[in-house]
Amino acid sequence: MGAPIVAASINYRLHGWGFLHSADLAAEGSTNLGFRDQRLALHWVKENIGKFGGDPKHVTIWGESAGARSVGAQLVAYGGRNDGLFHGAVLQSGSSLPGILKPATASSWAPYYNKLLEATSCASASDSVSCLRRVPTAQLSSIFNSSFAAAPGWGQVVDNDFFVAPGDSLLKQGKFVKVPLLLGANFDEGTAYATAGISTTDQFLALVKGAGVDASIAEEIAELYPDDPALGIPATLEGRPGGSIASFGQQWKRVAAYRGDVTQHAARRLTAQSWAGSKVPVWSYHWNVLVNGIKPVYGATHFQEVVFVFNNIQANGYDTPVSANPLTGQPKSFIHLANLMSRMWVSFFTQGNPNYHQAGSIKWPKYETKNPKNLVFDVNTTKLAYGSPDTYRDEEISFIIDHLYS
Questions:
Q1: Is 316 left (phi over 0), alpha (psi -120 to 50) or beta?
Q2: DSSP run (H or E) holding 60
Q3: Do 192 and 170 share a structural domain?
């Protein structure tokens, strides 16, 4: 393509090291540390990437899954403050949303934090944070990795500093960094988030309410997502699970459709609508490919597009006991799709627009408020991609955005 890029991968603290929260930590400003690590790394890139041949005035932040949630966090950090750190963003199967319907607070973190203090003999300390800092790293790591208590969620917490409100609320308020955005999700994201073993409507309702949804809202969700396999996902699984996969539950496809929408698809649509509504360039995709090694019960599930985006046709890194080469035994259209997608991503990195890909006549439509479209990637079509109205499960997703998000 004649479009070189410089890629920089960053480190940040995870688990309790990066996302522990409490009133004591908030009082001294030690909140959302993992996200602050990322912010510091972006400052480093701004100051130093020129020495590596990069352009500090042309930085795109890019992530998938938790990485996309990290990118989403930076897009709404400090109420949408950029500090000149980046000039474009890519969200693959992730967004600015907290990841849980009821964002964690100091109050919801208190039981975990108090048990952590007990486990580290810091419960009676006058300064709990200083006491924790004196605990040997190996000991604290062992405690974090044990099952001594359940954390309310390792992610964003509203601290009136890095996050002035939940991410979904900030999107609705237009408080996000106005830079070109490329984002999308896979058709069957929900199979990665669905709970197996749900076979009755009562169990489905219990699952919905278990995430903090009011009973009346849960009843409406059950009506919007009826027990009809033809309306659920994935399409690669006909009817209900049976035989060797019967344990997935008779309402697997119902659960997968709902969970995929609430965790990924509604968030993607809200994000795309927010960008388009602010007249900021945004391109949205929908990915529909069943790769080698993935059973039909999962379909075009979470993460499976990554090998294509990297044009990793040798499948480097997939030779493990728990993974398989996604391209083994597949037709050449899979290779062609990897070429197309990787070129589109590079085009976005270098031009702020995915359409300078030099791989044929396929044009990725810009997402517009009046006529919103996704580019659907699909190896079963001649051109490998086509524009499609962003109206799938329209009523269901609108309900989620209006009633479950902030």
A1: beta
A2: strand 60-64
A3: no
pLDDT digit string, tens, across residues 94-113:
999 998 888 899 999 999 99
How far is 136 from 120, CA to CA, in rounded Å?
A: 10
Residue 264 has pLDDT above 90, yes or no: yes
Cβ atoms of 346 and 1 within 8 Å: the answer is yes
Continuous segment of H or E residues that includes residue 389: strand 385-389
Token digits of residue 320 = 């493990």
Largest Cα–Cα separation, the chain: 68
Structure tokens at 171: 């999107």
Q: Which structural domain range is residue 194 located in?
A: 186-406
One domain for residues 196 and 159: no
Residue type, 19: F
Query: Over the stretch 175-223, which tens digit does the pLDDT of each residue have?
Result: 999 999 999 999 999 999 999 999 999 999 999 999 999 999 999 999 9
Is the pLDDT assigned to residue 406 strictly greater than 90? no
The closest alpha carbon to 378, from 388, 391, 369, belongs to: 388
Residues 6+ apart with CB under 8 A from 273: 369, 372
Q: For residues 130 and 193, state if they share a domain.
A: no
Number of domains in the chain: 2
Give the residue numbers marked as catalytic. 65
Tokens encoding 311? 């044009």
372 touches 273 (CB < 8 A): yes
Contacts with 134 (C-beta within 8 Å, 6 or more apart), sequence order: none
Mean pLDDT for 380-391 is 97
pTM: 0.97
Tell me the residue length of the chain: 406
What is the rounded average pLDDT of the residues 232-245?
98
Q: Which of 153, 179, 205 is the last residue of a domain?
A: 179
Q: Are residues 106 and 196 in the same domain?
A: no
Write the CATH number for 30. 3.40.50.1820
Could you write out the three-class secondary structure of 83-143?
A: CCCCCEEEEECCCCCCCCCCCCCHHHHHHHHHHHHHHCCCCCCCCHHHHHHHCCHHHHHHH
